[in-house]
Amino acid sequence: MCTAPARDAIRYEQKVFDELGTRTIYHGPPNDETDQAWYDLYMVGLSRITKEEAAMLPNWTEPIVGDEDHYIITLDYIHQLHCLNMVRMALWPERYGEPVLGEPIMKDDPTPFDHVDHCINILRENIVCNADITPDPYQWDEDKRQIMPRFDSVRTCRNFEAIQEWQMQHRMTVPVETWKWTHVGN
Known about the structure:
Elements: E1 12-16, H1 32-42, E2 47-50, H2 51-55, E3 63-64, E4 67-73, H3 76-90, H4 93-96, H5 115-130, E5 138-141, E6 146-149, E7 154-158, H6 160-169
Antiparallel strand pairs: 1-7, 2-4, 3-4, 5-6
């Protein structure tokens, strides 16, 4: 299992997804309130970990300039939620504009970066990586006169608030403008 500095923050809880019933702030046509709710889910900033924690990671990460005893990370759920939000926004071009191809990521690759396509693939990879094995039962639906899947199954989830709390406690306080890359070209 890969080292994860936030592993101690994991708390498990039983949840029932109400996938076919109650609408949440995250559902439906976008508005300012919905946009803010999505933003609040993942805009908690970057995190800092100790040099010792960074040394245990399977991939290297950069030290924080001006705070070289700490290193920069972000928890991947933030990237995943950002990507889901990008896909959501792509569904509403009248509010957010048409998704556009951006600049190439690598100077040797002239292919423009398609942010939404990247996000769809990141979400696919994460779903496959974390393959939720919660059984969704099938039950008779009297109105439809057939058996139908039930997505409101009880499942075991990580307590999201506990993970966000870890993220806030490890929030990086050095302004992004001060970043200097020590491994340019690597």
